[in-house]
Design a protein that fits this description.
The chain is 24% helix and 29% strand. The protein is of the alpha+beta class. It has a four-stranded mixed sheet. A hairpin with a 5-residue loop joins strand 1 and strand 2. The protein starts with 9 loop residues before the first strand and ends in a 5-residue tail after the last helix. The N terminus is likely disordered.
């Protein structure tokens, strides 16, 4: 069954405490360079503490061919962070979180953490490569945080938040 995804969905707008104060179309939020909306991100981490890092397709509107979080997406208007996590993980990786264990790592905000949006970050522990959506990703790498930062230093491009999130949640592995 194909999942139909509206690329210009409505997103909830939030105040500095992550309380909903309105909603707007995604295109308008990006056009206005706003950061008061919600997203989810998750990392797949294997038993060797390597993170599954995919590369986005060339057809992505933002950050084409950049390295990305294992899962990421917008929280649509009326949706909770958890609902968005379940939806995005199924859409992008064909992983059903109703039968797969995951854990919450933390919440981040644009003002406190210098990230692009209000976000909640999760972790999925597994050793197998997910059956990822080829419309989202063209290739992947199992990388330690240190290897990821070596790739970045060598010129590999990433979504802006990727190095920030890895440093925040996996920085102890960089030493």
């Amino acid at each position: 069954m194909a999942i139909i995804h509206n690329v210009d969905e409505y997103l909830d707008l939030v105040d500095e405490n992550d309380n909903i104060v309105g909603k707007e179309k995604r295109s308008i939020i990006y056009q206005n360079k706003q950061s008061n909306f919600r997203v989810i991100n998750a990392f797949i981490v294997n038993s060797r503490d390597e993170i599954w890092i995919p590369r986005r397709t060339v057809t992505k509107r933002v950050f084409p061919l950049c390295l990305d979080m294992s899962v990421g997406g917008h929280v649509e208007s009326g949706e909770t962070y958890e609902e968005a996590l379940h939806r995005e993980t199924l859409e992008e990786l064909n992983i059903d979180l109703k039968i797969t264990l995951y854990k919450f790592l933390g919440s981040l905000t644009p003002t406190k953490d210098d990230v692009s949006a209000f976000q909640r970050v999760y972790e999925i522990r597994m050793d197998k490569v997910p059956n990822y959506n080829r419309d989202d990703f063209v290739e992947y790498f199992w990388l330690t945080p240190k290897q990821l930062f070596e790739r970045i230093r060598s010129g590999d491009k990433t979504k802006n938040d990727l190095p920030k999130l890895v440093k925040i949640f996996y920085g102890s592995f960089l030493d």
